[in-house]
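Quick one - inputs below.
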Amino acid sequence: MKKFKFIADFEGEEKYLNQMAQKGLHLKKYNSLGVYTFKEGKPKNSSYRIDYRQFPNGAKFDEYCTLFEDAGWRHVYGTPRSGAQYFLPIPNKAQDGDIFSDTESRMGRYKRFATQSTISFIIMLAYFIIAIPKDFVFFDIRSLYYTEGLWGMTGSMFWKAFLFETPFVLIRVIPLLVVGYMATIYAYGAIKSKSLYTKNII
Amino acid sequence: MNLNKLLPLTETTFYIMLSLIEPSHGYAIMQRVEELSNNKVRVAAGTMYGAIDNLLKQKLICEVPSNDKRRRVYTLTPEGSEVLKLEVGRIKHLVAISENLVLGGN
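Output:
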């Protein structure tokens, strides 16, 4: 089962996953565009914990997961490059109820998330600029149609030419919308996590 | 680099570096910190990983070869030992002056 949700703070996301687990929906996968994949099962009282970290290689990532496992936390989802890392306590294994023991490290994940979001935002912004169709004037849909004299035509001749070109216009404009959406998400994530970090550290 | 700039260490970092006089891996450090602090200081997994990462970046600890690639073993570098010594000196001074000023009156 897939659900779309965009949550920029980890505490809120942990709460959301716990609520889903109470309904019998357990996290299987997540991607940074906001799509959660759940598998259905028995309702459970879970206490998810989320860290945010990327790894230069698989070996470092293995070491990270092993440390958590030794300390009583099962790595539920995350890849070396995914950033968000999801954990659940291993039943009957001693662990301290949290994966962070001080405010600085608990907030450090927001700092890393803000840095990564800023980088992703800049990349998306560059793609956005590249994806702008030739001669496009923002908020003027007419500038997306390249058929000469189109807007001067009338009657069935206009509709024929208009409908003929519309699929091409969509092809030109969809990448722009997707990349624009992603740039917005990353900008929002960067600003929100930066402010959460600053508020809690100083 | 002026090692004094790294002082004072946080209590957690101090305990972690103290544990790393003997080479050990992440989870072993967590247990050692608990033991050294009489169960008063517990370092959680995420905090521990971040601390190791920072100490490696500051070159105060380094990896030593071991068989278990999933549990890498670390120990203090010469700079790390030096920082620890400087910190112990700093704390000694604090203890010495406070013994006179705070406890010395009676």
